[in-house]
Fold this sequence. Notes:
The chain has helices spanning about 5-25, 40-55, 85-100, 110-145, 145-160, 160-165, 170-195, 200-215, 220-230, 235-260, 285-290, 315-320, 330, 335-345, 355-375, 395-400, 410-430, 440-450; strands spanning about 30, 35, 75, 80, 295, 300. It is mainly α. It has one domain (about 5-275, about 300-450). Helix 8 packs antiparallel against helix 9 and helix 14 (about 335-345) packs across helix 15. It is globular and about 60 Å long. The chain starts with a helix and ends in a 5-residue tail after the last helix.
Amino acid sequence: MNDKEQRDLLxxxxxxxxxxxxxLIARGDISRDGAPLPILSVNDLSRxxxxxxLAERGTYDIDETPFPTTIDRVRLNGHFxxxxxxxxxxxxxxxxxxxxxxxxxxxxFARNAAAVIRVIVLTxxxxxFMVFLVLFARLLDRLAPDHWVRTYSLAAAAFGTxxxxxxxxxxxxxxxxxxxxxALYAAYRIWCEGQTGARLFAVCGFFAAFAAVNEFPATSxxxxxxxxxxxxxxxxxxxxxxxxxxxxxAAHFWTNFKxxxxxxxxxxxxxxxxxxxxxxxxxxxxxxxxxxxxxPATGQVVFHDNIDGQYEPWPKYLFHMLAGHHGIFSLxxxxxxxxxxxxxxxxxxGHKLRAFALIAIFLTLVILTFYTFFAGQxxxxxxxxxxxxxxxxxxxxxxxxxxxLTQAATSxxxxxxxxxxxxxxxxxxxxxxRNPWVRPWLHEWMVxxxxxxx
Length: 454
């Protein structure tokens, strides 16, 4: 094993060990028999309720579960269902049943719910996270010939993005992001290296589609990859990419139909949220009461304007998405380097990553425009660290990162600036490592300063 491989292994094992440790100590507010469970928010609670009901009751409805009621639910045909797309919980129900069978019932919700939750979370997050880092290291062999740039880029992928923090909770964002990277890696081998193996087309199609059904805006990247590969190798794209892409798409619509009786997702129906006691129908003043807390020092009730009730002017909202309390660049400034790298790649018409950089820029602008003007509520994704709606774009941004570090190979000042960016990015990640479903550190600081009240 050479020095480069040893550095890679060191970074990957450190990142994997951190995620494993965080997952093992994760504790939420939900308890079972007096012991806290590693269910960290109403978001993952909604999915766990579906997994329990499907495995133990044989139904998608979550009317009766051992967990508290989640606000992420809808009412359809007289029953409550998770508002989350059902494909992922369906797949994880299969894993749960395998675990329960192989352990002779020891790993079950009835006997050891905490262990079940941790094993499944590690399976769906830690395993693909490690594969992602290994493949990214291989990609850096091609994109970053300088040792410092290469090591920095791998460390940034391991410790500098919110994907690392969200690995400890069941969510769709990490799964979609890792799927995006696997698709992009295969697409790179095809587009930039001239590889035409059937397996690469199949991997690209399957994971691009699986990302899309877990993160619906990622459908745009699925379309871009399909169009590009059709132009490059249309026969192999039709033979291998398209059939494999149809598998997760068909599974998504089938499971969705089982729940809603239609192809539209449950959350697309506003009427489904209109039931007595629905959190989403509460008056903003009532939501403010729901989000109040007791200050342990004074015993007084402290009120916060709930973030779900925000309707800020679009310039203010866009600022906070980019450089404010949920800012892509303020919380994860390594992506400033990615933006510089994307600009450099696009200016170089002969750069092998030019198509990827153009896609990254275009999709980033599209997503920011959509959530600024067309998404309805301007609530930054609710109570969460980072702007979680853009996490699926992180692999694209990482593709452009080495190009933004070219001057760091020769300039000590640029290296110092880059290290400062990585320091702040890693701090944001580690701040969220106990529970990523909390406000970012910058948000908390702005509340402390009295600049915002939600």
